[in-house]
Design brief:
Length: about 150
Amino acid sequence: MTPSTDLLHFRQDPANPRDVNTQMIAPKTLSSSFAVVATLTAALSAARADEALFDHNGSLMAIDYQRGASPYQTVKSSLSAFVRPGLVAFSGEITPRGKTRGTAFTFRRGCDAAAYTVSGGYDPGLPGFVLTGAAPLREKGGGRVTG
């Protein structure tokens, strides 16, 4: 079994192009590869200057640029049985309009988080960030990582 490629797009809100720190992410899974298309949009929130709040498929997330972490703030109801507020979905280096690299995590009910390396950077054509990496594969019906 070959690990799938994880592709993350973070797009800036065209209505508010100056605001790189407030983002919205909406993922979609494509065939055998794990693909996430993320759209950054402005959200009204009281975030610190080094922190960005965004929506990740219905869950409120934060990017803390100084700590290099993206924990869940509020978890959508369909994930609440196995994802808790404060759980980190990405850890590493991420800077507005810069290069990004670190570790992303996938989650499955009843299983430990599975980590994988991602890297990328800002793409002005989106505009936003693109991260890629080999997402782990899990056994059917279980949580063990098989590749």
